Each structure stands twice: as structure tokens, then as C-alpha cells.
């Protein structure tokens, strides 16, 4: 029997061990989910909505417990962890409001009426990463359940505890057995078994682009539907006409939040050449003031990286000779700490400038004009997010249309909202999550024609 060890990333102390699911466990879970889904989909919409609202209320009652678990297993600062637990609650609440609004259409035709229905898919597998274990579990599970599906959630190896707690809360809220199951396990074994299982209709995968590509290819065998939320290398574009003080003050949060382990992290700071030096001067104190330390302290803004392996990966991008412009502090001793690091590479195609580091590391690169900014912003294989800083409204709109990314913000680093759509262009993903259409991604559209001809 394989065990997963959960470590506290801030102290390296063991937190828990959890049994990893086998392919046999996946088979058993799919059988139970299939039976539960049929009964769930047959319930009146109002009943399903009420049960999901009850789950949101139960999550709310356990907010602090969930947040503390997230601190222990993922090393997130407690203020962030509380937001994340609240986000999971809001997701179920929002999805519950969609159950009775999941309406089809009536399309004019000759000789009868034509209507569409949004039929649930069946059993949905949600494969989640470790960087935002609780919100991402809820992003997939809440709309899938609301649309009448059953969900099997496989959390990441390092962060299964909040997901297991969520399953417990779902039962406590009265959701039927088998409808929402959590199977901790390894990616290749439990994740692989879900991806290949003929009883699973859709895979919602959030994780690395490399694994996302493999999953998409393997889903083709059983024609599973997929939503992929993958990596990013997002630009933060600062024009000379921007409020530079505000742009510099906001920049650290956009790549240091969650210790840079954020698919939307704005890790490529592109600054118009005429204000490049001034921007760096303003950025330095903002990075150094970003408070790093004990995740349990409410004043902490940045905690450790998730694991020793992740720290090695981050280090591999910052050689001894790297052109470091700004470096923050990090606690010494136990824990997977890494300081905030800002680099000014000579070449815009340096690996650290185009590959996803997934740590507190950003590059600052100069650009000449709008066309150059667009060219640099789009010079990666990703297209998840980005920010633009300018006082020129026309430029803000032109740039918003020209940058190839699914989620942009102007004069801010607006975070992800559960009621607006989220997803990536290019190799950052496929499909959209959240927002008003979240439920329809978990349905098939069925078209029905009913003849009104008189029978002879
Ligand atoms: P990962 O791809 O290694 O793992 C993600 C999940 O997939 C884990 O649960 C893992 O166990 C599972 N998995 C791994 N191999 C598998 C396989 N062969 N078959 C099935 N499942 C498998 O990613 P990670 O290191 O956990 O997460 C970091 C990555 O996630 C980053 O690249 C980040 O950008 C991305 N991410 C994207 C978004 C988004 O919304 N676009 C959000 C968060 C994280």
C-alpha cells in the first residue's frame, strides 16, 4: 500500500500520511459515482440548489479549520488561506444559484417547436494541483455538481488534506454518498486511472502544461471532454505614461503572492525604456518591504515554497552569475524558503524570461513602443494573464485586444473572480472555468424537435 506523506513546507515537519488510491479504488469510486449521479440528476433543480447552498454554509462554519489546514499542508499565509477557504464557499453558493438558471433555448422552426436541454455529462474527474488546493478543487467540483454530475476529485500528492475535509463537509451537509468523492493518490496511478476510465465523461485538469498535453492525448481514446488550466508566464506591461509609483507598488504582489506559485503570476515585467531605471528604483523598496515569514502570522504576505523539489527547480533558473537587480529576505533554517528575486536578463529569450519558474522570481525587460510591447508580451508559448499600466484609454484598449491572454487587467492586477470567466490562450489551456457559463461546460446540449403537425 502506497502512503503519501504530507509535510509542513514552513518547518519540514510531518503533518499526516494518507493512503494513495489504487486503480481498483478508482473503479469502485466510479461505480458509486455513477449510481449517485443518476439519482442526483433526477432531483428537482430546487432540491439540488438547496443542498449545494447547505454545503456552502457548512464550509462557512468550518472556514478557520480549512484555512489552518491550508497553512499546514501548503505553507500559505493565514490571510491568504482564509481568502481561499472563503472562495471555496462562494463557489458552491454561486454554482447553487445556477441550478435553476440552467435553461435551454427555444429556436423557431417550421412545423413544430425546437428546444434545447443541457444534459449532465455523468461522472467528472477533477485533477487538482498543489498551489491552490482548495479553490481549484471547488472551481471544478461546484459547477459540475450544480449541472447534475457526480465528481471524483484527485488532489495533488503534497496537498490532499483540505480536499479530504471538503468531502467530509459535503457528507455533513447532506450530499448523497458517492456524489462527491476525494481520492488522494499519485498522478500516474490514481490520476492516470481516472483519465483512462470509460465511466468518466470529463476530466478537468489544472496543472503543468506538460502533463496537460499527455492528459488531452489520452482522453482522446474514450472521447472524454477536457478542460485544461495550465501554466503561464504573464506580462506586466508598464508604459511611461502610467502612474509609476502605483505600478511599482503593486508589482511585488503580482509575482510574490503565493510565493510565485501562481499560474497567473506576472513574472515578466516589461517597462518602457524611458522609465526603466526609475521603475527599478521604485520597485526595490516595494519588493524588500514584502513581508516574508511565519505563515501563521496574519501580517505575513509570503511563505515558503511547497517542497524541496520545487525550491531546486526555482534555484535552477537563478545561476550564481544571474543578473540579480533586487533580492528580498528569506528565513534561514528549516522550511523551503526562497527570497524574492528580480533579474534583468540581457536577452528577452533567456529561459528565465520565457519559461514558467513557479517561484518568487521575476524579470524586468525594456521595450521601446507599443508595437514592441505587444511583440515581447506575446513572445512565449503561454497566454494566461497579464496587466497593463497606462493612463491612455485608447492604448489600454488596443493593448488589451493585442495581448494573447485569457485574463487581462488594466491599472491593477485584478485577481480571479468566481463570477467572471477564467482560462488560457495557447498552451495555457483549453476551455473556461468560473463565470456565468461555468455550468454549461459540464453539460451536453441536446436538441429536440417536436412536431405540431396534426395526425392524420
Ligand atoms: P502537475 O502537472 O505536476 O500536477 C497536477 C496534478 O496532476 C496533480 O494532482 C498530479 O498528481 C496530477 N498528475 C500528474 N501526472 C499525471 C498523469 N500522468 N495523469 C494524471 N494526473 C497526473 O502540476 P503541479 O506541479 O501540481 O502544479 C503546478 C502547475 O499547475 C503549474 O504549471 C501551474 O501553472 C499550473 N496551474 C495552472 C492553473 C490554471 O488555472 N491555469 C492554476 C494553478 C496551477
Quick recap:
The protein is of the alpha/beta class.
Structure in words:
The protein is of the alpha/beta class. The chain folds into 2 domains: 3-230 and 424-448, Aldehyde Dehydrogenase, Chain A, domain 1, CATH 3.40.605.10; 235-410, Aldehyde Dehydrogenase, Chain A, domain 2 (3-Layer(aba) Sandwich), CATH 3.40.309. Helix content is 38%, strand content 20%. The protein has 14 helices and 18 strands. A 7-stranded mixed sheet has the order 12-13-14-11-10-15-16, with helices on both faces. Strands 7-6-5-8-9-17 form a 6-stranded mixed sheet, sandwiched between helices. α6 (161-172) links the parallel β6 (150-154) and β7 (180-182). α1 packs across α7 and α4 runs parallel beside α5 (133-146). Bound molecules: nicotinamide-adenine-dinucleotide (NAD). Residues 127-132, 136, 154, 156-157, 187-188, 191-192, 195, 206-208, 211, 214-215, 229-232, 263, 356, 358, 384, 424, 428-429 line the site of nicotinamide-adenine-dinucleotide.
Q: Let me know the largest β-sheet.
A: 7 strands, mixed
3D shape: globular
Mean pLDDT: 97
CATH topology type of the largest domain = Aldehyde Dehydrogenase, Chain A, domain 1
Question: What oligomeric arrangement do these chains adopt?
Answer: single chain
For the record, give the distance between the C-alpha atoms at the N and C termini, rounded to a whole number: 68 Å
The whole-angstrom Rg is: 23 Å
How many distinct folded domains?
2
Q: Count the helices. How many?
A: 14
- Under CATH at level 1, the class of the largest domain stands as Alpha Beta
Structural class: alpha/beta
Cofactors, ions and other ligands in the entry: nicotinamide-adenine-dinucleotide
Strand order of the largest sheet: 12-13-14-11-10-15-16
**Assigned CATH architecture of the largest domain:** 3-Layer(aba) Sandwich
Report the β-strand fraction as a percent range: 15-25%
Would you report the number of β strands?
A: 18
Helix content class = 25-40%
Q: Which residues form runs of ≥5 with pLDDT under 50?
A: none
The CATH homology group name of the largest domain: Aldehyde Dehydrogenase, Chain A, domain 1
Amino acid at each position: 500500500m502506497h502512503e503519501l506523506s504530507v509535510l509542513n513546507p514552513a518547518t519540514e515537519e510531518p503533518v499526516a500520511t494518507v493512503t494513495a488510491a489504487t486503480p481498483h479504488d478508482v473503479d469502485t469510486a466510479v461505480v458509486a459515482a455513477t449510481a449517485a449521479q443518476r439519482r442526483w440528476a433526477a432531483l428537482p433543480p430546487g432540491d439540488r440548489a438547496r443542498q449545494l447552498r447547505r454545503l456552502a454554509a457548512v464550509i462557512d462554519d468550518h472556514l478557520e479549520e480549512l484555512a489552518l489546514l491550508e497553512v499546514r499542508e501548503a505553507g500559505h499565509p493565514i490571510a491568504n488561506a482564509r481568502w481561499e477557504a472563503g472562495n471555496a464557499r462562494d463557489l458552491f453558493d454561486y454554482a447553487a444559484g445556477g441550478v435553476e438558471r440552467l435553461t435551454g433555448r427555444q429556436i423557431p422552426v417550421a412545423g413544430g417547436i425546437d428546444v434545447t436541454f443541457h444534459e449532465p455529462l455523468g461522472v467528472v474527474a477533477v485533477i487538482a494541483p498543489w498551489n491552490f488546493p482548495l479553490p481549484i478543487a471547488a472551481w471544478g467540483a461546484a459547477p459540475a455538481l450544480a449541472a447534475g454530475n457526480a465528481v471524483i476529485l484527485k488532489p495533488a500528492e503534497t496537498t490532499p488534506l483540505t480536499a479530504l475535509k471538503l468531502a467530509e463537509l459535503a457528507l455533513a451537509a447532506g450530499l448523497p454518498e458517492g456524489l462527491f468523492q476525494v481520492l488522494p493518490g499519485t498522478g500516474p496511478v490514481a490520476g492516470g486511472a481516472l483519465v483512462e476510465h470509460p465511466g468518466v465523461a470529463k476530466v478537468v485538469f489544472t496543472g503543468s502544461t506538460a502533463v496537460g498535453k499527455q492528459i488531452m492525448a489520452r482522453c482522446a481514446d474514450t472521447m472524454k471532454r477536457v478542460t485544461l488550466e495550465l501554466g503561464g508566464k504573464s506580462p506586466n506591461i508598464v508604459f511611461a505614461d502610467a502612474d509609476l509609483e502605483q505600478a511599482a507598488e503593486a508589482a511585488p504582489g503580482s509575482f510574490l503572492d503565493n510565493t510565485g506559485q501562481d499560474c497567473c503570476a506576472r513574472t515578466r515585467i516589461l517597462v518602457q525604456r524611458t522609465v526603466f531605471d526609475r521603475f527599478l528604483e521604485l520597485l526595490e523598496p516595494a519588493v524588500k518591504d514584502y513581508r516574508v515569514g511565519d505563515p501563521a502570522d496574519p501580517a505575513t504576505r509570503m511563505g515558503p515554497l511547497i517542497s524541496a523539489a520545487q525550491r531546486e527547480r526555482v534555484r535552477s533558473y537563478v545561476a550564481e552569475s544571474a543578473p540579480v537587480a533586487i533580492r528580498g529576505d528569506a528565513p534561514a533554517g528549516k522550511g523551503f524558503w526562497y527570497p524574492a528575486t528580480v533579474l534583468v536578463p540581457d536577452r528577452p529569450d533567456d529561459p528565465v524570461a520565457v519559461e514558467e519558474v513557479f517561484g518568487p522570481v521575476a524579470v524586468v525587460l525594456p521595450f521601446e513602443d507599443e508595437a514592441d510591447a505587444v511583440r515581447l508580451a506575446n513572445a512565449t508559448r503561454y497566454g494566461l494573464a497579464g496587466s497593463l499600466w497606462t493612463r491612455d484609454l485608447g492604448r489600454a484598449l488596443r493593448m488589451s485586444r493585442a495581448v494573447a491572454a485569457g485574463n487581462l487587467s488594466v491599472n491593477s492586477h485584478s485577481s480571479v473572480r468566481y463570477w467572471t470567466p477564467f482560462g488560457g490562450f495557447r498552451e495555457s489551456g483549453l476551455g473556461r472555468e468560473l463565470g456565468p457559463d461555468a455550468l454549461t461546460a459540464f453539460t451536453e446540449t441536446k436538441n429536440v424537435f417536436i412536431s405540431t403537425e396534426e395526425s392524420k
